[in-house]
């Protein structure tokens, strides 16, 4: 069985949302123990991950240091997060595999995702990245031309362009690595966004692709049997945040689309996860699950989490 596991930003930071190196290393060690459990059961696993906090922090560092060293564009920041987070995940995964006596190795692939240069996401930024700030600090940055939006009790957050993923450019290489027996970390942050020019060449573009939508396309591109979207809650929840809140267990893709249309899933957080699992199953995937990492083996088997099936 081939599994695509999408690690959310929450799975890559400390419970209080801090993204210090030590927080990310500790979070990766927890996440990779679950992946090693899957590999120990004979599964092929591809891991992808978010990069919202990390790419936003890198962008700020570039802007602050611009007077000292040449700043780099947002797509370069995204590429750097793939290397850094892949490195951290590989160290954690290799250790977890060794602890289980599993003779498999990890690999990370710098991965590009093609987008449409005319995507409306370039006109209306929607993807939250980086740190949270109080409103009074965010509005100063808005006056300097940045786009920030109120993200509720945690504060305001910068938002950038987030175009639709159209093609995982490096899917063939990912598939080859899996076929050679590697546990592969790929398409971090939804992939490095690129556009194809008239000459057929690829060029980076400043944006951050939604990791969950990127994961749905990657899962299809590498012929995964199961897609697991791992976050910090055990299920998607109906009437979330209300006294009538109800965890959602097994559900058909048609029913889940109907529930999404009723507005149960918040944009920018659970909604893209729901969209991603629906896309995967609608495209022929056997099963897709939204859950946390606590019961990853059960989630893959369809025994835990919000389990989406055809129908
Ligand atoms: N209907 C819902 N069911 C469950 N969680 C929801 C729902 N709506 C919003 N959320 C929030 O979505 C969060 C997960 O989304 P997000 O923070 O973007 O995850 P990640 O960073 O792990 O990808 C949960 O922690 C929860 O607070
Ligand atoms: N690129 C992306 O979707 O990252 P997060 O999941 O951390 O927001």
UniProtKB/TrEMBL annotation:
Keywords: Kinase, Transferase. The keyword Transferase applies. Residues 1-292 form the Aspartate/glutamate/uridylate kinase domain. InterPro entries: AceGlu_kinase-like_sf, Asp/Glu/Uridylate_kinase, Carb_kinase. GO terms for molecular function: kinase activity. It holds the Pfam family AA_kinase. Gene3D superfamilies: Acetylglutamate kinase-like (3.40.1160.10). Belongs to the carbamate kinase family. NCBIfam families: PRK12352.1. This is Carbamate kinase. It comes from Nocardioides jiangsuensis.
């Amino acid at each position: 069985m081939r599994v695509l596991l999408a690690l959310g930003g929450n799975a890559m930071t400390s419970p209080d949302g801090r993204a210090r190196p030590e927080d990310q290393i500790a979070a990766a060690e927890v996440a990779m123990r679950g992946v090693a459990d899957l590999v120990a059961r004979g599964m092929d696993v591809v891991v992808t991950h978010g990069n919202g906090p990390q790419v936003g922090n890198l962008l700020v560092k570039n802007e602050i240091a611009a007077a000292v060293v040449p700043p780099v564009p947002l797509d370069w920041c995204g590429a750097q997060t793939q290397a850094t987070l892949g490195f951290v995940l590989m160290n954690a995964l290799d250790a977890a595999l060794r602890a289980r006596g599993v003779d498999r190795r990890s690999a990370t692939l710098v991965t590009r995702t093609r987008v449409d240069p005319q995507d409306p996401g370039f006109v209306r930024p929607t993807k939250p990245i980086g740190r949270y700030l109080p409103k009074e600090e965010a509005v100063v940055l808005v006056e300097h031309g940045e786009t920030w939006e109120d993200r509720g009790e945690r504060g305001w957050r910068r938002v950038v362009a987030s175009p639709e993923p159209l093609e995982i450019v490096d899917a063939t290489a990912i598939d080859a690595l899996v076929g050679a027996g590697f546990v592969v970390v790929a398409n971090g942050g939804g992939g490095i966004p690129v556009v194809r020019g008239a000459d057929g060449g690829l060029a980076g573009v400043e944006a951050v692709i939604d990791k969950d939508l990127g994961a749905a396309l990657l899962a299809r591109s590498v012929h995964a049997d199961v897609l697991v979207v791992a976050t910090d809650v055990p299920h998607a929840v109906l009437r979330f945040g209300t006294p009538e809140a109800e965890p959602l267990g097994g559900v058909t893709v048609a029913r889940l689309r109907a529930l999404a249309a009723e507005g149960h899933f918040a944009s920018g957080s659970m909604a893209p996860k729901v969209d991603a699992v629906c896309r995967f199953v609608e495209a022929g995937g056997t099963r897709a699950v939204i859950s946390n990492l606590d019961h990853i083996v059960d989630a893959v088997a369809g025994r835990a989490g919000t389990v989406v099936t055809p129908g």
